[in-house]
Write a structure and sequence with these properties.
The protein has about 180 residues and is an all-alpha fold. The protein has a single domain, classed as Rho GTPase activation protein (Phosphatidylinositol 3-kinase, Chain A), CATH 1.10.555. It contains 10 helices and no strands. It has helices at about 1-10, 20-35, 45-55, 70-75, 80-95, 95-115, 115-120, 125-135, 145-165, 165-170. Helix 2 (about 20-35) packs across helix 3 and helix 4 (about 70-75) crosses helix 9 (about 145-165).
């Protein structure tokens, strides 16, 4: 999925913003969940993007860990960019290794899409609005006002992560997928 998103996402206007066919997504998810072979290259890239966001939303406790939710939310309240980056790196060190590996690939994809935002209309802000709700959610539900404020903070965090991914994860993030 990520490889396809890395290949096609940068040249696809509205990637992650537009949804794939709900029926197709449901059918493909059922096939994937049953272990059947699925060739996503034959599907719309919007279906792949929708399936990927659904996958992220189904990670127990979220990929960024709902247990660290308060710490993630407070990162953007820190001083300068250097302090934010250091705080983010400390939080990443607290995540399970599998989460960190997946995050690197996710932000490698987002970086590639952002680099061609004039073509695809998906700058870091737009990507964050679409992806942030799939990366972290509060451990307990709350009022709509609190959830709205939370969504803004997490979107701001994901925008910052996207814009600074090379400094946070290392320059090699741009070549994780090799020459495709």
């Amino acid at each position: 999925m990520l490889s396809l998103l890395y290949q096609e996402g940068p040249s696809t206007e509205g990637i992650f913003r537009r949804s794939g066919s709900a029926k197709t997504c449901k059918e493909l998810k059922e096939k994937l969940d049953s272990g059947a072979e699925v060739d996503l290259a034959c599907e719309s890239i919007f279906v792949t993007a929708s399936l990927f966001k659904d996958f992220l939303r189904n990670i127990p406790g979220s990929i960024l860990s709902s247990q660290l939710c308060d710490k993630w939310v407070s990162v953007m309240d820190q001083g300068n960019n250097e302090e934010k980056i250091k705080s983010i790196q400390r939080l990443i060190e607290q995540l399970p290794r599998a989460n960190v590996v997946l995050l690197r690939y996710i932000f490698g994809v987002l970086h590639g899409i952002e680099m061609r935002s004039e073509e695809n209309q998906m700058n870091a802000f737009n990507l964050a609005i679409c992806i942030a709700p799939s990366l972290l959610w509060p451990p307990v539900s709350s009022t709509p006002d609190v959830e709205s404020e939370f969504a803004k903070k997490i979107s701001s965090l994901v925008q910052f992560l996207t814009e600074n991914c090379c400094r946070i994860f290392g320059e090699e993030i741009t070549s994780l997928f090799g020459e495709i």
